[in-house]
Specification:
This protein has 155 residues and is α+β, with helices and mostly antiparallel strands. 27% of the residues lie in helices and 32% in strands.
């Protein structure tokens, strides 16, 4: 066709270092003390429709962890039963920052760790990708963590 198509222009959105900060409360960390059981655990949870969020793994300790909303813990306990060596860490919250501008910017990790260290907030679990960075902290520290990270990143 000879008709003019849609013109796509840059809005500057993709160049912003961080475009959003979020906080989520009422999170529990579930730690399974056996890496070779990950496939089995996630298969059972998926089959029962239990969503998981942040996933971390410690090869040295031979375990993996993931987060779920608090209201899913009882269901997970029933699904996994006594078949797995599992530890639950309740009363957690998640603070995340997202943005396409974080890609290839090592100062983001430095700033997050620095902000939390300066605020005496202990990280329980962490997950990152090219465009998202999430930390799991004590639920009582969510506001402190969110404000500290925000103030450090948005200088």
């Amino acid at each position: 066709s000879d008709e003019e198509g849609t013109k796509i222009e840059s809005s500057g959105f993709e160049s912003a270092l961080v475009t959003g900060f979020t906080a989520d409360r009422n999170v529990t960390i579930v730690t399974v003390h056996s890496l070779d059981r990950a496939y089995s655990v996630f298969t059972k949870l998926a089959n029962m429709g239990v969503p998981v969020d942040v996933i971390g793994q410690s090869v040295g300790l031979g375990e993996f962890s993931f987060t779920v909303k608090d209201e899913k813990v009882e269901k997970i306990q029933k699904i996994l039963g006594d078949e797995y060596d599992v530890t639950f860490t309740p009363n957690c919250g998640k603070v995340s920052l997202v943005g396409c501008g974080m890609l290839g910017k090592p100062e983001v990790a430095k700033d997050v760790y620095e902000a939390l260290a300066e605020s005496n907030v202990k990280i329980k679990l962490i997950s990152s990708s090219e465009i998202k960075f999430s930390v799991i902290v004590d639920d009582n520290d969510v506001d402190i963590a969110l404000n500290s990270i925000h103030n450090k990143i948005v200088k």
